[in-house]
Amino acid sequence: MACHELAFLLCVAVTGVALAMAEADAAEPVDIGSRRELFVDDHLIDRMENARLILHHPQPREVVLEFDQPWEGIYSGYETVIKDGEVFRFYYRGMPEARHALDVEVTCVAESRDGIRWTKPKLGIYEVRGTKDNNVVLARSRGCHNLAPFVDTNPAARTEQRYKALGGTGEPGLLAFVSPDGLHWKQLQNDPVITKGAFDSQNNAFWSAAEEQYVCYFRVFRDGKRWIARTTSKDFVNWTEPTDLDLDGKPREHLYTNQIHPYVRAPHIYLGLPTRFFPGRRVVTEEEARRVGTPTSTRCVSASLECGNEPSASSVSFR
Fold first, then answer.
1. Each residue's pLDDT tens digit, 267-287
2. Which domains does the chain have, with CATH numbers?
3. How far is CA 197 from CA 163, 246, 309, in A?
4. CA 218 to CA 192: how far, in whole Å?
């Protein structure tokens, strides 16, 4: 499907929401105590004179990672970057063919000390494409389609489950995974833990210190639109009935990946960079698409995660 995506900023305040709204309605100052706050909107601003809010634009810099291994390829994506101590970990889906299948999609990892220079560790955990000399941390699993790991900061988290993740697409739902070190993963149980959703995107979970529970934002479809829903859990296994994201009554637009996560220095505020999806808009010409190797059509069955594609005219890499 031809499309165009555009990222924008989404801010969700968590703690003190009811109090803050009540105080705001009463035109009284909002008591923020000693909390750090962000001026990402006008919620805490009464008025501005000779000033305005400007969202800084991201600036392109050097290429830090190339998906150049046989198990990676041009269909790699759904990246997650986290920091654990002094190490950054960059998780992503490896997908060398335009085919969603258990023998194609894998979850890979790269590591860095500064977030700029990255290496792909040779882990020897899974044999993929005829070799174990790779950086694959999960293979032959439904979770590989969109695994999104996080470091569990829950004070009660077990050592062998210090890393957690959700993954999977379509029916029957999202699977839960755990790891002691972020490299060796296992599925927490056979059954999916969240079942009411589409999940065909990156579904983000985390431990919320502000709410003292796990939170997950994930893909749903509403009135023919790609949308975002939320659910919570105390144990990462049993989740509440999902609720849809409400943008103060604004009309729904197609929202793709949501990237909602607590802001690191003000964890009561969740920041998201969802991408707007524009069906029918193209960012490359037909000739460029052929050079990239993009299939002309795709057939998918989400329940079995088996998808096929019509062959394209060329599979030459395009830069």
1. 999 999 898 888 888 788 888
2. 5-12+69-284 (2.115.10.20)
3. 23, 16, 25
4. 14
